[in-house]
């Protein structure tokens, strides 16, 4: 491949001015190379240019890229935090709806105290409910009576009146959501463009 001094200087001039994409396009158009080979050649030429030859602040370009990346990370963290907070609020308001509209009944633990099976009666019919919450050591004993809120129109729509069932998921999701949101906002502020 024959490369004239004029072509070399043109490519070098584009790089010195910070116009790397234009330099890659020039190589591709004038020498018939593919994108990968053109980029590799431009990177080799770029290595031969001394730092003081550049007509733009390369550090500023790198710092700007880092700030944009930092902002993006901050936005992602804040977004995840918002989602977690939203889920915690959704659970909280769902629980509150059931507490306000439901009736309070008593249920008996009939087996497996660490992940209890409850038996309860609604409108004269007996129902059983296996808790989703598992605790070790067990939170209940067989035969223990607990309060629960039940939707009278749907006896399987219920909420056990205990901390693990009412508040554990809300507390964990809310704390994680607040932490992620706070970190995200802090990172976004630290990396904001000036």
Automatic annotation (TrEMBL):
Residues in Large ribosomal subunit protein bL12 C-terminal domain copies: 18-52
GO cellular component, one term: ribosome
Domain DUF3592: 114-163
Keyword Ribonucleoprotein applies: yes
Residues passing through the membrane, by range: 72-93, 167-191
Highest taxon above the source species: Bacteria
InterPro entries named in the record: DUF3592, Ribosomal_bL12_C, Ribosomal_bL12_C/ClpS-like
Keyword annotations of the record: Membrane, Ribonucleoprotein, Ribosomal protein, Transmembrane, Transmembrane helix
Name this protein carries in UniProt: Ribosomal protein L7/L12
């Amino acid at each position: 491949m024959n490369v004239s001094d004029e072509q070399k200087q043109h490519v070098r001039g584009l790089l010195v001015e910070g116009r790397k994409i234009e330099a890659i396009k020039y190589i591709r158009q004038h020498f018939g190379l593919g994108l990968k080979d053109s980029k590799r050649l431009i990177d080799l030429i770029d290595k031969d240019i001394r730092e003081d030859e550049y007509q733009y602040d390369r550090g500023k370009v790198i710092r700007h890229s880092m700030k944009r990346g930092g902002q993006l990370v901050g936005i992602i963290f804040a977004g995840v935090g918002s989602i977690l907070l939203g889920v915690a609020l959704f659970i909280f308001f769902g629980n509150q709806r059931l507490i306000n509209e439901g009736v309070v009944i008593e249920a008996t633990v009939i087996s497996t105290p660490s992940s209890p099976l409850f038996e309860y009666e609604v409108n004269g019919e007996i129902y059983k409910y296996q808790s989703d919450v598992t605790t070790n050591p067990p939170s209940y004993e067989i035969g223990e009576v607990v309060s629960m809120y039940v939707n009278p129109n749907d006896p399987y729509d219920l909420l056990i009146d205990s901390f693990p069932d009412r508040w554990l998921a809300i507390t964990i999701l809310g704390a994680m959501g607040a932490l992620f949101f706070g970190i995200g906002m802090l990172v976004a502020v630290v990396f904001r463009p000036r």
